[in-house]
Write a structure and sequence with these properties.
single chain; alpha+beta; 3 domains; 5-stranded antiparallel sheet; 11 helices; about 20% strand; transferase; iron-sulfur; cytoplasm
Length: about 400
């Protein structure tokens, strides 16, 4: 069997198609492989990897990545090649450039230069990928340049995402600091008001009650109607004294400072007992904790008890305070009517705002608060925060 006659034209066409397919495969590998790598790299490593791949893709021996910072100053964020030759490049970022630009500079240290803009999501150019070669070469074809532009766009998207994430983290840190200061100012104001009430109005009410008791003891027998009025006045005065003490205790529980978190929580649970709700302690821990931890856990429990008294219609409440592996854990569970948890904690009315405040108190200490509830199935509140016993003993 004879072989078909050799056709030089067909062989050339096949060779051309093969080279074109190889070129397309190389471009595809450049984008796919780099895109997968960038998701696992730090911003600095992203810049170095993209620059190295871009230089290798066009077989160019020098490269530099230029970026404008927030103060409009141009910085070199990655480089490859001889510093002496790179210093001969124009290191400005042309914000009006929106497409790659090829330059030929015969006789220069770097005879060929390709500039590829880095553009943000708003379309503004904030950087430039500069590739250069010390030996003259032919200009890359349009498909190669388009691939490099896609690569630069991919890098720009990752860098912009990192900038946005960094700004978001800084904003969140600032917000947390402001909330922490707000909580501290709130505690200081509550402390001041508690002391003012104790030294002023509470003392006056206590003195009034004592004077009325003394007057009633020295008063001659009165008609039944007047005696009933006097006893009602004594009862009202005694009730005012009790409410004043309860108000002072809510503003700044001295029992927390004097006897610790467990005693303060049990004292706060008296409000539940007075409302006819049975209170069970499932775990008790008398260890003193750092002041910030005790205040936060007490306020969280206080808000939880307020919610139970206002909304839950519960008959039983289970409390637990425990320490385990450097974590202080507090639980407040009730068997009340519960509520739906579909809405985020910070959008569902005053009760959910209270839960959001509790969550913020826990997060400021590096802890976590969870609230599980369903209609008709009660509510389970659990908060866990880290602590250092050495701080509590100082």
């Amino acid at each position: 069997m004879q072989n078909p006659p050799h056709d030089p034209g067909s062989a050339l066409a096949i060779r051309t198609q093969y080279r074109q397919s190889q070129g397309r495969a190389a471009r595809l590998r450049l984008l796919v492989d780099t895109g997968q790598e960038l998701t696992q790299l730090t911003p600095a490593a992203m810049r170095e990897r993209v620059l190295a791949r871009a230089c290798a893709f066009l077989a160019m021996d020098h490269g530099i990545l230029l970026e404008r910072d927030a103060d409009a100053q141009v910085r070199t964020t990655a480089s490859q090649g001889s510093h002496e030759r790179l210093s001969s490049l124009d290191c400005r970022v042309d914000t009006s450039m929106h497409a790659p630009c090829w330059h030929e500079q015969p006789g220069a240290l770097l005879s060929n230069v390709l500039r590829v803009p880095l553009r943000g999501g708003d379309g503004d150019t904030f950087g430039t990928l500069v590739l250069a070669n010390s030996v003259g070469i032919n200009a890359p074809d349009n498909e190669d340049i388009e691939s490099l532009q896609l690569l630069a766009t991919l890098l720009a998207a990752h860098l912009e995402n990192d900038r946005l994430l960094t700004a978001l983290i800084a904003r969140d840190r600032t917000l947390s600091d402001l909330v922490n200061r707000l909580f501290r100012a709130q505690e200081d104001e509550r402390k001041r008001m508690a002391y003012d009430l104790h030294d002023g109005l509470a003392q006056t009410l206590a003195g009034l009650h004592q004077r009325l008791q003394g007057f009633a003891g020295r008063c001659p027998p009165l008609p039944d109607a007047l005696d009933a009025d006097l006893q009602a006045i004594l009862t009202l005065a005694q009730h005012c004294v009790g409410e004043g003490r309860q108000l002072i205790g809510g503003l700044r529980p001295t029992v927390l400072d004097d006897f610790g978190l467990l005693t303060a929580l049990d004292k706060e649970a008296d409000r539940l007992r007075e409302a006819g709700i049975v209170v069970h302690w499932t775990e008790r821990c008398e260890t003193r904790l750092p002041h910030s931890v005790e205040i936060a856990l007490f306020r969280i429990a206080q808000e939880g008890i307020n919610n139970i008294l206002k909304h839950a219609q519960a008959s039983q409440v289970r409390l637990a305070l425990a320490l385990h592996e450097g974590q202080a854990s507090l639980r407040v569970d009730d068997n009340g009517k519960g509520f739906a948890m579909e809405q985020p904690l910070d959008t569902g009315g005053s009760r959910h705002l209270g839960l959001a405040a509790m969550q913020e108190r826990a997060s400021l200490l590096g802890g976590r608060l969870t609230c599980a509830s369903r209609a008709g199935c009660g509510t389970q509140l659990h908060v866990s925060v880290p602590f250092d016993l050495e701080q509590a003993t100082q």
